[in-house]
Design brief:
homodimer; alpha+beta; BirA Bifunctional Protein, domain 2; 2 domains; five-stranded mixed barrel; five-stranded mixed beta sheet; 29% strand
């Protein structure tokens, strides 16, 4: 991509924001604020989010997930039927249309249950595992954390339907493992944290938390086992276990729940087992905050000059600057692009210094600089964003070096 | 994909629907109705829509489009500022939250103008070309046409910002050509149809219409030039031209507009030209209905047994049925999948006849059947969905034959 044709409204001085991620992402031209907790995602963010979604998609497919896209519009009656409308905490966060009895999806347990009822009759039709990338709407009162807590946000939510607790438990564990794979692939060191089952279940649920000083959660973690406990279950921890734990601030990037038969009973979602007996379906729900992940990564990976994004998440792989008055920059850009690398070529007419500043701000992993000096050597300067030192690489070797970095 | 792990709730008897597309897509397990004009998109539809979006994405990128995702939530004040809130027709279709002064995006001219104001100062910053795949919300009173007219629907909308009418006109024509490429790639024979510029402009706008007996538009078309006129501009047609036209029913799948400076003036979106003079930015808007395209294709491509989807849009390329009691089906499935083909392998325990019925209903372009007879010949029966005859293909030749069909 040539920067002259690319839309990335970086700012020299961004307005102060409530959070590090909102400030950095706005300054680096990733997002533009529409209202409190509401952001427009600009091309740099869209590219990063597409990569995050693809990682999540692959891992959800690997555990048998089927991708769907349910509607945001949901009749109010749906929530009344499940009893959730009686929950004041829930009702307060749901957007509802002025006159149409229509709500805007804050979550999707109910609509998924209704849809699956069309399909499931016998044990042969189970399990059903559906997930979606969906825009959720929630009237957050404290929408002050950039992409960490928005009133409109992107989420991967998965709902699973099983014949009994045992088969749900098996899936639950495979999903937990898939979640850990997702976070690892995105460069995040996530802890599996025990939490209460909430109102749905007597069992525990699990949160996936990333340690971060600006996180709004406070949890106890065991660094050796990469597990932990959230506040709700602290009373249940044994003394011996307690000694191994450290209290840390963290950001919740995912959660998984046993739902039991709460929703399937509300919607009379049953099946006939092998003996012809009508049984309740057992459900689970599994969330990952997609935009929140980009927010979390921005909170964690930056320095005084801007973002330092992990390779798997950065919108481009290389940022190319040409300081020579030649066509060498275009040539290298074309070569690398044809070889399949994602290069942002800063072909704009502006001072070299400003380009260096923007390269650092946007946080692309590799910076390539063609200078009169390297040109004489048929080479280019290569600097990784996360490193202080640069190396000179022969032009004919650049692809090989990049391949190694991104392998 | 093995059908036993795939979620496609096909129906023997689907409820009567208001439209052919809603009936067929529900029966074939692509969609599930949530409310009037609101549908959950199930895995078959998601796969088709992802293919449609990818074609549109490639063509929008080819004319310099930058992909963004703006928010659905938009403060009511945004619409007041542009004056659109005073337009009763517009106000009636917008969803607005009960207490929050927040609307749910019916369109995005205003928010895009506001965001671009952050970036554009001089002629050097122009043009700006932004597009998105976005869920739109509109309170349609007559939401009776399945995916053709929903209250929640998926749309590609592009907004372009130019220094003057001339440069906008140039882009407008390149976009029109890109639109025709999109529809052609999706197997649609679209006409470029002149329409009035609406309230925004004295110039004409263009609609892209596909002839369809169940379409809700009535237009005049010239089959030779693949152009036409909609009702609004019929009075302007010369007598000589009129002779060449036929009156047909059609579905509008895209439209492109000159917006002039209506929105840029409302939001004081100006730039400094080369002479340092402050000038109004000229805008255009460009829409393609993504879910509507799937609806249109379903209206057009079907027979008495179900959908007959074009190769570029079908959720899978081949539907594999194994009538032998062997592992040959799994083997062929693995071979084809590894070779990169998208195969739906019907591995369910159910009568062969029912599988044939579902294969026809879902409308995947190629059906492959392994039978005891073809097994003896190390071959498979291959039938194209759009054809009445089948051929026997040696197993080792299947990849080559499929490659030819899908090239």
């Amino acid at each position: 991509m040539k920067f002259s044709e690319f839309y990335a409204p970086t700012k020299r001085d961004a307005a102060k924001q409530d959070s590090v991620n909102a400030y950095l992402l706005a300054k680096a031209g990733y997002i533009s604020q529409v209202a409190a907790g509401v952001y427009a995602l600009l091309p740099l963010a869209v590219r990063s989010l597409q990569k995050i979604e693809q990682v999540v998609r692959e891992e959800m497919n690997s555990i048998g997930g089927n991708e769907v896209v349910f509607s945001a519009l949901q009749p109010k009656s749906t929530w009344e039927k499940s009893g959730r409308w009686d929950d004041e905490n829930f009702r307060q966060i749901v957007y509802i249309d002025q006159d149409a009895d229509m709500t805007f999806g804050a979550t999707h347990e109910e609509p998924m249950s209704i849809a699956v009822k069309e399909k499931v009759q016998s044990y042969r039709d189970l399990p059903v595992i559906l997930y979606q990338f969906q825009t959720k709407f929630r009237k957050e009162l404290r929408a002050k954390s950039g992409l960490l807590r928005g009133r409109e946000f992107r989420m991967k939510d998965l709902y699973s339907f099983h014949p009994d607790n045992e088969s749900h438990h098996e899936f639950y564990e495979s999903a937990a493992t898939a979640y850990l794979r997702v976070f690892k692939r995105l460069g995040l060191d996530a802890y599996r944290v025990k939490a209460s089952g909430g109102v749905f279940s007597k069992e525990y649920s699990d949160e996936f938390q990333v340690i971060c000083p600006t996180g709004e959660d406070e949890i106890l973690v065991n660094h050796k086992t990469k597990t932990g406990f959230n506040k709700e279950v602290e009373a249940d921890i044994s003394v011996a276990e307690k000694d191994k734990l450290e209290r840390v601030k963290a950001i919740e990037v995912g959660n998984i729940f046993h739902l039991g038969s709460k929703y399937s009973d509300a919607f009379d979602l049953k099946y006939l087992n092998k003996d012809g007996v009508r049984k309740s379906i057992v459900m689970g729900s599994y969330g990952i905050g997609i935009t929140r992940l980009l927010g979390t990564i921005s909170e964690l990976f930056h320095d005084q000059n801007g973002l330092v994004l992990p390779k798997q998440v950065a919108p481009f792989q290389a940022y190319l600057i040409d300081l020579t008055n030649s066509k060498d920059g275009v040539g290298l850009y074309n070569t690398l692009t044809k070889a399949g690398f994602e290069v942002l070529f800063d072909d704009r007419e502006m001072p070299a210094g400003a380009k260096f500043v923007e390269a650092d701000l946007i946080g692309i992993p590799v910076r390539l600089v063609l200078s009169p000096k390297t040109k004489a050597e048929n080479a280019v300067e290569l600097k990784e964003r996360s490193s202080d030192t640069s190396t000179v690489v022969l032009l004919k070797e650049v692809s090989k070096v990049l391949e190694k970095i991104f392998s």
